[in-house]
Design goal:
Lyase, Ornithine Decarboxylase, Chain A, domain 1; alpha/beta; 377 residues; single chain; 6-stranded parallel β-sheet; 8-stranded mixed β-sheet; TIM Barrel; binds pyridoxal-5'-phosphate; 11 helices; 16 strands; 31% helix
């Protein structure tokens, strides 16, 4: 489905965010899972390559392989790793992908796949520190390390865990607990694998300089210009990040709605005076949420215009009455970003009752909507 709305990506801003983060912590493993939070993982990978970044974290095995095909030469961790058989292991070896090993079954699958064939697979090892999602509990780390050392068919190159509440300064006691379990696990693993690196902090942990120890931080959100510390006492730490995604939709009809007339499905809007309205070609099929929160708006030539009535599948209505100029059909409305008083992903997340991560994932999920000129090297 090739929609009329368009997702624009500002890779210069992406590079600027990357440099800002590298200034705080030089070793990074940028997270480009879920198609780089809706921005396009292949293109993000090319930008990381150009900037000389040595690590990247992708989502699925297929996504990681695509990142390798795109020309990223550094190490790639598969965050959503679920090794099923020898073929998966073979692909990891061939494309030099580091599966995130998080259960005993993974260790067995790798050992069996390589036992006869030979070879050693570099892996990322996940330890459970409080998220209770994926990973080996601290008590099993020594046994797993011994298994890996005895097998000789796998070599942990990086130890990984993920923080649950690094973005909330009021929860710092829990974060400290997670750090402590993490570094205990690191000490155990390093007895067997002294060269192994460590990676714990996400964007929030990185911005708050949670860890003074040497590690490779894994920022996602900040690369795309959003600040996970928004609304907290430490919001200032995310200053200077620039949005990467903007979304436009053309106005495909403008006309007058007479006083007393209603609008759209459910007749949820009734004009209390004559209004100039316009329909923009974006709707919930394009990831623009059908939500009725007050205050929703878009931007036309830098001026805010309120969203009125119900969002339809591919159309949304705007009240254009207050504009100081007369808009014309065919003109692009900025749904997200753009010049002037731009709508931010944070603001849209507030209307939708969610987080900016979901906003860019939702709006960026249709690759046919992406208006992304090819990268130059
Ligand atoms: C998504 C993810 C990150 C990045 O988190 P941000 O809050 O976007 O910086 C880091 N590590 C893991 C394991 C993740 O799943």
């Amino acid at each position: 489905m090739d929609p009329l709305c368009r997702v624009h990506l500002n890779w210069e801003n992406f590079r600027s965010n990357l440099r800002l983060l590298r200034y705080i912590s030089s070793d990074l493993m940028p997270v480009i899972k879920a198609d780089a939070y809706g921005h396009g993982a292949r293109r993000a990978a090319i930008e990381l390559e150009k900037e000389g970044v040595g690590w990247a974290a992708a989502g699925t095995l297929e996504e990681a392989a695509a990142v390798r095909d795109a020309g990223f030469s550094g190490r790639i961790v598969i965050l959503l790793s679920f090794l099923r058989d020898a073929d998966d292991v073979e692909l990891c070896l061939r494309s030099r992908l580091l599966p995130l090993v998080h259960r005993w079954e993974d260790l067995r699958v790798i050992h069996e796949a390589l036992d006869g064939r030979g070879g050693t697979l570099g892996i990322a090892f996940k330890v459970e520190t409080g998220m209770n999602r994926l990973g080996f509990p601290l008590e099993e780390v020594d046994r797993a390390a011994r298994f890996m050392a005895d097998s000789g068919r796998m070599r942990p190159e990086v130890l990984i865990s993920h923080l649950s509440v690094a973005d909330d300064p009021r929860e710092d006691a829990f974060t400290r607990l997670q750090c402590s379990v993490f570094w205990k696990s690191a000490a155990i693993l390093r007895r067997y694998f002294p060269g192994m690196t460590c990676s714990l902090n996400n964007t929030a942990g990185l911005l708050r300089r949670e860890s003074s120890r040497k590690e490779i931080c894994r920022p996602g959100l900040a690369l795309y210009g959003c600040n996970p510390l928004h609304g907290t006492s430490e919001e200032e730490r995310g200053r200077g990040l620039l949005p990467v995604m903007s979304v436009t939709a053309p106005l495909i009809s403008t006309h007058v709605l007479r006083r007393g007339e209603s609008l759209g499905y459910g007749r949820t809007y009734i004009a209390d005076s004559d209004r100039l309205i316009g329909w923009a070609a974006i709707g919930y099929a394009d990831g623009y949420r059908r939500c009725e929160a007050p205050g929703r708006s878009m931007c036309l030539r830098g001026c805010r215009v309120p969203v009125i009535g119900r969002v339809a599948m591919q159309m949304t209505c705007l009240d254009l009455s207050s504009l100081p100029f007369s808009p014309s059909a065919g003109e692009d409305v900025h749904v997200l970003g753009g010049p002037g008083n731009a709508v931010t992903a944070q603001e849209m997340a507030h209307w939708w009752g969610t987080i900016p991560y979901e906003v860019t994932c939702a709006l960026g999920r249709n690759p046919l909507a992406q208006d992304d000129p090819p990268a130059t090297r």
